[in-house]
Amino acid sequence: MPLSIAFPGMVARVGFFIACLLGAFLGQTAAMGQTGISMEVEIGIDNFVETGSPIETQVTIAAEVLFAGFVEVSLNNTTTRVAVEVPAGGSKQYDFVVPPIGFDKVARVKLLSTDLETLDSVTQQLNVVNSAVLVGVVDAPLAAAGLGRTRTEIDSVPVQVITLDNIDREPAPLGYIVWGRAESLPDRAQSWLGNGGRVIVDRANLAWLDLDTEPIGHDTNSGVDWLSFGNGEILVVETFDLEPDQWARVIRPTPIDFGPQQEDGGLDINLLQAASQGARSRIPPPWSVGLVVFVYGLVVAPINFFVLKKLNRRELAWFTVPALSILAVTTFWVLGRTRLGGTELSHASLVVDNGSGRPLTMSTLVISTGRAENHRLEVGEDSVMFVAAPPVWANLGQGKAVVDGNTIELEHPELGTSALRTNSSSGVLPVITIDETGSVTIENTTSETFDAFGLIGFEVQPLGNAPLPPGATAAFNGEFGGGFWPEDEAFWQMTNAAQVSGYNNHYFAFSDSHQVSVDLDGRTRTVSGPALYLVAVDPILSQSASGKAIAVPPGSTLESFGAVFADSVTVGFNVPTGVEPILSSLTGEPVDYMAWNWAAGAYEEVASGAMDPNRYVAINGEVVVKVAQGMIQAGPKPIDPGGGFVGSFTPANLRLTWESRAP
Amino acid sequence: MNPITTREARERFRARRGWPFLLFWVMWCGLAATLLVWISESITGMGFGQAFAAARLGRFLFDTGTLLLMTAVIFLVPGIAALSIVSEREKQTMHLLQVTLLSPRQLVLGKLSASMAYFGLLVVIVLPVMAIPLLFGGVPLGDLVGATFMTVVVAITVGSISVWVSSWARSARAAVAGAYLLSFLLAFFTFFLILGELFLQTNFRNEPDQEIWTAIPNPYMALVSAVEHPLEFKDFNDFTTPYAPAYFGLLAREGLTNSGRPADRVVQRDNRFFVKEQRLPLWLLSTAFYGLITYLSLRQATTHVRAPGPRVFKVRRIRNPA
Questions:
Q1: What is the DSSP string of A320-347?
Q2: Which end of chain A has the smaller Cβ count within 10 Å, N or C?
Q3: What is the rounded distance in angstroms from the CA atom of residue A85 to the CA atom of residue A416?
Q4: Do A414 and B138 lie within an 8 Å CB cutoff?
Q5: Do B54 and A276 touch (CB under 8 A)?
């Protein structure tokens, strides 16, 4: 029977097919198992990152067999790829930076083989600190236990505890470090502390810190001794075994991270604009386009038809017109390829005194190429380079970036404009001295001419007439005005960048000829562009301090553009000790103020004007003011006092001034 | 080649006004392009600097140029094609064509191809103007192919509609007016229909959850869909491209807005984020719709140009009363 003959054959074929499928599946599984590769990823501090800063990423790969491939981190529309190689039976740790977070806060990490096959992948949600005080605890389990149940006495902000094995990455997202290890602080933590961080130690371990500290005093409310180191402070507790209500008095709210602006993708727009302004024009002038079309029109219509008329073959226009047209298109194409063939580099840099002894030069580097090309860039060993996420408005065709140490290979799949950020511990700052009478002297110790110099405070004020050539000195006697600003758009973009980045109350000097050296495709290129040198002003001299939002009630809305809509906002200040602060709002709007009475541990209603330093200024000079209003807008940058937002309020516009130190 | 097309191709440039119109057309497009470069430079720069302006200028020029070309189709093709058959009637040469060996279909297709050939020449002659974005870079070849394809499809459809109008119109004026009216309804009135349908679906508050049927006939939506295929999440916040409104419409078709990227609707390829589309691409639906309209128009035109058949006399048989 036909059925009895066909059936065994069909079974055999189906069986063979299933066996093939099983074999393929099992074979693949076995192959994956044989590789024995695993990946551990740590991004930022326990996935907490700081807005605007490159994110330190640590990937540890363990492999049973020799493994070579790539680690790829996709974040904020930018992919960073690092070549990795792990010996058989070993593990290897790779540290690199990825761009600052943008609107997209999900990091996708992949382990790829050499042929870019995904072997393992991890997705991590990154966070900024805006609703808690983040405390990193090292070797202090008692402190971790107590802090985990704590809310700050001021505004009842929750404390979030992260237990750390060590501090080998930038601890910027942390508000406090509790250090219980009988060792000196790691370099990263020391640097962070010197720049305004806060470290808590018990008295037994204080000596291990081995830091050149200055005593501030004993805080009666919290019962701890306060020391200063640079701009930071060290709180010395008798023991880590404190009750939550005791910790609540030790821990104070820290500035809120408003998160990245949606538009900038983690890159400072102002610096990017300033860098882009420096690029040589790549756009042909409109009149040249018109001229080319005019000449083409003359050739294709009157001249072409005149010739055809002479030949008495006007119908040939059906062929001559397309031929001339194609010839013109080809010419355009060739011209375009030739004209766009070059690669241009431009930059804008902020050179900042960050208290580490060596200036920090933060450069935004713009690379423009006219066609799909790959480039290899290399910077000095003292630099950290990362691909900046392209801002959404730039609409760039930036492709993948392969990072290898101080080298980046950039792919431009379509058209070529990329933005890079480099942070380098190099450069020279001008020397600024202030004598006892308040007279300021600026000495240009750089090799560039300063086109402007002055003070960035609530507004940009000139200190004298530019230019100031290299080696020259200018003196300022305290009277603002008299200087002229350069007619350079980059100047205002750079000062804006400084203000947005929080460099208020800084002396500045502007140069439009700052040189940055970059190795592009094996050839060293020196790129000239604008730079702003920033040196912090001693607040005693400026006699003013602006506020930063440190707490908002739960349920408040933090907007990505730097605004908070809330019923109230708490603003923190730091003033020199011994002064009598005067509270005022630049917008002049009537608001209800409450100031924190440090001795009583409670808020008290205050009015604009002089504040009692004995009540409202902590022993370290901290002042906390709570502003209540129906609608509050809080942002990182002071708004124009003359303009401003009607019916809103900006903490940076709340300021404390003082006349002189109290006797 | 169709003999009608051949004849009209030979006659097209015998008239004295042949080349001055071409010159005017090139110069007009050139002037528009020059102004466009000037405007684009201002818009795309906007303080972001030369590097970024240069990077976006080519794209802006391309987007604007393709939309202008589509507008040129809407404005030029009816004027050319609407006269094709009715002019034969006015010159009283229609019956001569009807008695040739040409079938009605050949006659209609010949008229259409003759009109389209001249329009094609008008497009070809301004290709160098359209190629100006090549000077700036940033336009992939696929986008150029998509834009050209959709423009040609719309041109054939508008030409077919115009030939159909021309086939039954009694005067050239009526044919031109009728052809323009239908073209404008297709190109511009559909925008109001889209808005109306969106309002009915969403009250302008929610994202639509159904197909926006009235978007299918709109040539501008079809053009942007063809160029922006596959649909990608782009940030058109600054509206520096004229494609933005149509792009928002395409997102709305997919039940998405420009502000959100739901994780289950994102397909990441290389460094780009594409929309996981739940509907057929609009340009595909539009092409099918235009194909149908073209077929129906030409079929109707064929019946109108058919020579009258032999008159059939009915013979009434009278039964023998006996």
A1: HHHHHHHHHHHHHHHHHHHHT-SEEEEE
A2: C
A3: 30
A4: yes
A5: no
Distance CA A622, CA A153 (A): 15
Q: How do residues A530-576 score in pLDDT, each as one tens digit?
A: 999 988 877 666 677 877 888 888 777 665 445 566 777 888 988 88
| Closest among A537, A536, A547, A575 to A658, alpha carbons compared | A575
Q: What are phi and psi of B163, to 5 degrees?
A: -65, -40
Q: Identity (one letter) of the amino acid at A509? A: A
Q: Which of B26, B55, B135 sits opposite A296 (nearest CB)?
A: B26
User: What H or E segment, with its residue span, contains residue B303?
Assistant: helix B282-305
Beta strands in A208-342 (DSSP E): 214-219, 224-229, 232-237
Between chains, do B19 and A305 touch, taking CB under 8 Å as contact?
A: yes
Residue whose pair of structure tokens reads 């290979």 in the numeric block: A409
Q: Inter-chain contact B47–A273, Cβ cutoff 8 Å?
A: yes
CB contacts, 8 Å: B14 with chain A: 314-315
Average pLDDT of chain A, as a whole number: 78
Q: What angle do CA A225, A231, A237 make, to 5 degrees?
A: 20
End-to-end CA distance of chain A: 118
Q: A136 vs chain B: nearest CA distance in angstroms?
A: 32
Q: Is the peptide bond before B230 cis (omega within 30 degrees of 0)?
A: yes
Selecting from B22, B49, B56 the residue whose C-beta is nearest the C-beta of A277 gives B49
Asked if residue A45 lies in contact with residue A162, where contact means CB atoms within 8 angstroms, the answer is: yes
Determine contact, residues A547/A632, Cβ cutoff 8 Å.
Answer: no
Return the SS3 of B50.
Answer: helix
* Torsion angles phi and psi, residue B153, rounded to 5: -60, -45
Residue closest to B252 by CA, chosen among B279, B290, B222? B279
Cα–Cα distances in angstroms (integers) from residue B25 to residues A97, A494, A547, B30, in the given order: 56, 47, 63, 8
To the nearest whole Å, the CA of A521 is away from the closest chain B CA by 20
pLDDT (tens digit, 9 = 90+) per residue, B268-277? Answer: 776 567 888 8
Contact assignment for A332 to B134 by CB distance below 8 Å: yes
Looking only at the bridges linking them, the beta strands covering A176-179 and A198-202 are parallel
A530-543 residue pLDDT tens: 999 988 877 666 67
ipTM above 0.85, yes or no: no
Q: Partners of A523 in the beta sheet?
A: A520
C-alpha to C-alpha distance for A457 and A657, rounded to whole angstroms: 12
The pTM of this model reads 0.64
- Which of the residues in chain A have pLDDT under 50? 1-8, 23-34, 262-266, 392-397, 560-561, 630-648, 662-663
Residues A402-439 have pLDDT tens digits of: 666 677 777 765 555 677 777 777 777 888 776 666 67
Continuous segment of H or E residues that includes residue A398: none
Instruction: Report the candidate in A200, A204, A280 with the shortest Cα–Cα distance to residue A246.
Output: A200
* Burial letters A435-456, b for 16+ CB under 10 A, else e: eeeeebebebebebbbbbbbbb
- β-partners of residue B118 are none
CA distance B77 to A445: 71
> Do B55 and B138 form a contact (C-beta atoms < 8 A)?
yes
- pLDDT for the residue A265: 44
- Enumerate the residues of chain B whose CB falls inside 8 A of the CB of residue A300: 22, 26, 125
Q: To which H or E segment does residue A595 belong?
A: strand A592-597
What residues are paired with A199 via a beta bridge?
A177, A234
Q: Count other Cβ atoms within 10 Å, centred on residue A393.
A: 21
Buried b (16+ CB within 10 A) or exposed e, B157-194: bbbbbbbbbbbbbeeeeebbebbbebbeebbeebbebb
Residue A215: both structure tokens together: 């005593």
Give CA–CA dist B148/B139, Å, rounded.
Answer: 13
CB A325 within 8 A of CB B125: yes
A523-536 and A343-352 strand pairing: parallel
